[in-house]
Write a structure and sequence with these properties.
This protein has 148 residues and is α+β, with helices and mostly antiparallel strands. It has three helices and six strands. The strands form two sheets. Strands 3-4-6-5 form a four-stranded antiparallel β-sheet. A hairpin with a 5-residue loop joins strand 1 and strand 2. The termini are far apart. Belongs to the prokaryotic/mitochondrial release factor family. GO terms for molecular function: peptidyl-tRNA hydrolase activity. Keywords: Hydrolase.
Amino acid sequence: MPSPVRPGLTVTTALTIPRAELTERFSRSSGPGGQGVNTTDSRVELSWDVARSAVLSDAQRRRLMERLADRLVDGVLTAVASEHREQRRNRDAAARRLRALVADALAPPPRTRRPTRATRGSQERRLSAKKQRSATKQLRSSKPRRED
């Protein structure tokens, strides 16, 4: 995952989080593991201090703080992984989660939808289909139809 040219966690082509800004914590994981489950610290918490990061511009920091507000604790974003039995695989999973969270939060907002009107043809087709359906159901009725 870390490259020799650009050490750190690459989020986008323009943003790489330096390894020095990432904090890893290990603890015992619940779940599968057999006899080793009580002795190995395979659960990984990968944390990044968004509020104090040196690699973010002010606009990026504002956007991350706004979009990740419910996930931040004192400006720190944390990704946890414990689904694998091996610490290395959990480290990779936590890094992927953190990368995805930051990339999604930094992505520009979607374009606003411009409301459109239904065409005359589509309205006519919809109404004729409704009339056809009504006629089909009338034929199923046990009451005789009233002729006007």
